[in-house]
Amino acid sequence: MKEESKRRIKQLLDKQEDNNDWIRKKKMEQVKIIIKPEEMHKDGSSDEIKRELTQYIAPNEKNIKINKIIKTNSHVIITEMRNEEQAEKLEEEIRNKEVKMKFDRLQKRNPKIMVYGVRAELSKEEFLEKCIIKI
Question: CB of 80 within 8 A of CB of 30?
Fold first, then answer.
C-alpha cells in the first residue's frame, strides 16, 4: 500500500513538472510590445491609447492575437502577444496606419541578487559552490 502511494505521488510530481515546463516554454515565446503616443500630453491616458489601438488598428479584423493589454500610469500600454509573428503583424499595422503611436519591444531583464555577509577574499567559484551545496 505504501509503495503504491509513493509511486502515485511520484507520478503526480512528474506530471506537475511537465506542466511547469510547458508553461515556462509558452511564456518564453510571448512577446511584449510597449505602445505610447508620439507626443506626450498631460491630459492623455493609457485608456486613450487602448481606444485608438482597438479603433484604428482593429486587431480582431486583422487576425492579430493579443493575449493581454496592460494599462500603465505613465500614458503607455503594454501588449502581450502570443508569438513573434503576431508582434510583427501589430507593428506593421501601426506603421501602415498613420496613427500617432510609437512602439518598442519590452526587453527581458536579467535577474540580479545582492548577497550580504560574504568574505571579500572568497572567489566566485567557491561562492557558487557553497551556494549550490546549501540548496
Answer: yes
